[in-house]
From TrEMBL:
Gene3D superfamilies: 3.40.190.290, Winged helix-like DNA-binding domain superfamily/Winged helix DNA-binding domain. This is HTH lysR-type domain-containing protein. Residues 1-58 form the HTH lysR-type domain. Pfam families: HTH_1, LysR_substrate. The keyword Amino-acid biosynthesis does not apply. GO terms for cellular component: protein-DNA complex. It comes from the Bacteria. PANTHER family: HCA OPERON TRANSCRIPTIONAL ACTIVATOR HCAR, TRANSCRIPTIONAL DUAL REGULATOR HCAR-RELATED. The keyword Calcium does not apply. One of its GO terms (molecular function) is DNA binding. Keywords: DNA-binding, Transcription, Transcription regulation.
Length: 287
């Protein structure tokens, strides 16, 4: 059924007046009559009870109205989805761990924008949340640390990093070339948010060395953690690239056993890749 005919029927059902419908739809009253008659002929029932004073829905009309409104609503939703898909085909949504600058991710994305002129939206979230966003098709790609759900993702290696013990400059262990995790048993720990992959990695590392870390502070903002370490509140375990190189108030020392993590560009393994997505994959692979 033509959606314009459905719209005419729904409008007449609500207005109950041919003149008002003609004015609102910018068509003649005779056109309204022809459209309604065509629908009724197709259905084989009268949708309106007509008299000289009013137009009222018949019992069949009330049934048809319910579904006509749903059909028109679905059509609008469909058109909206198609419009969004057209825009999406010419843009990308890329997720990343919060340390987007330290690993050069922001630079790679901005360079790709300059080369292609495409629109890119960037979302920063912890790795676990990024995996969920990929699963729910809320982003096209994601730079994820230590991918857990490898079954459903294709991964392109992007970067590796090594864990460091971050200490105040005047700490009694600050002159060592390497630090054993067991040497930190009595320390106060300042870590990334509880439940995050970096947090769990640190806690499990301490447990494997025979102790449970005394975590006195957690924060998503690395600079806050580093500032508090410099002030002597405790120590931290951070990846090397997250530690500010210009700070003279802290030291970063490799830990033993050596702990490395990897960051990968991920996308769904069953993804139907557009030309734009293929370009971005090639760009990251060839950087």
């Amino acid at each position: 059924m033509d959606s314009e005919y459905l719209k005419t029927f729904v409008t007449l059902a609500k207005e109950k007046n041919y003149t008002q419908v003609a004015d609102s739809l910018y068509i003649s009253q005779s056109s309204i009559t022809k459209r309604i008659q065509k629908i009724e002929k197709q259905l084989g029932v009268n949708l309106f009870n007509r008299n000289t004073k009013s137009v009222e829905l018949s019992k069949y009309g009330y049934i048809y109205l319910e579904y006509a409104e749903k059909i028109l609503q679905l059509e609008q939703e469909c058109l909206k989805k198609i419009d969004q898909a057209v825009v999406h085909d010419n843009s990308l949504i890329i997720g990343s761990i919060p340390s987007i600058g330290q690993y050069g991710i922001s630079k790679e994305i901005t360079n790709f924008i300059k080369d292609t002129g495409v629109e890119i939206k960037i979302i920063t979230e912890p790795s676990g949340k990024l995996e969920n966003l990929l699963h729910s098709n809320q982003c096209d790609f994601a730079f994820i640390r230590e991918v857990k759900d490898r079954k459903y993702f294709k991964r392109i290696p992007y970067a590796k990093d090594q864990m460091m013990a971050v200490l105040p400059k005047n700490h009694h262990l600050a002159n060592l070339r390497k630090i054993s995790i067991s040497q930190l048993e009595k320390e106060f720990f300042l870590l990334e948010p509880k439940g995050s992959r970096p947090y769990n990695l640190c806690v499990n590392l301490c447990k494997s060395s025979g102790f449970l870390p005394n975590v006195v502070y957690t924060d998503r903002q690395i600079e806050n953690i580093v500032d508090l370490v410099a002030d002597g509140m405790g120590i931290s375990l951070l990846m090397s690239k997250l530690v500010p190189k210009e700070s003279s108030r802290i030291v970063a020392i490799p830990v033993e056993p050596t702990v490395s993590t990897s960051i990968s560009l991920c996308y769904m393994s069953d993804e139907n890749l557009t030309d734009l997505k293929r370009k971005f994959i090639a760009y990251i692979k060839n950087r």
